[in-house]
Write a structure and sequence with these properties.
Elements lengths: L5 E4 L8 H4 L16 H21 L3 E4 L7
Parallel strand pairs: 1-2
């Protein structure tokens, strides 16, 4: 039986630092979206799509993505 190999990405918004989260009870539930930077997100989004195109070019069998609300 052939093995299929998939490219997986959780698509994190990795611009949040520990000190940004420190004032809040929970980074996942209480961290305000006012910290969201649309320009950084735009760059990340394009980077993830470049990764997916690369995964296709090199022969991965598929792409899996995961979406998180308020993920850092």
């Amino acid at each position: 039986m052939p093995v299929e190999v998939f490219w997986f990405s959780e698509q994190p918004y990795g611009h949040v630092k520990d000190e940004d989260l420190a004032p809040y009870e929970s980074g996942r539930m209480h961290f305000p979206n006012t910290n969201f930077d649309p320009e950084k997100a735009h760059d990340l989004y394009n980077n993830y799509h470049d990764q997916y195109a690369w995964a296709d070019e090199v022969g991965f069998d598929g792409i899996m993505t995961n979406e998180h609300h308020s993920a850092y």
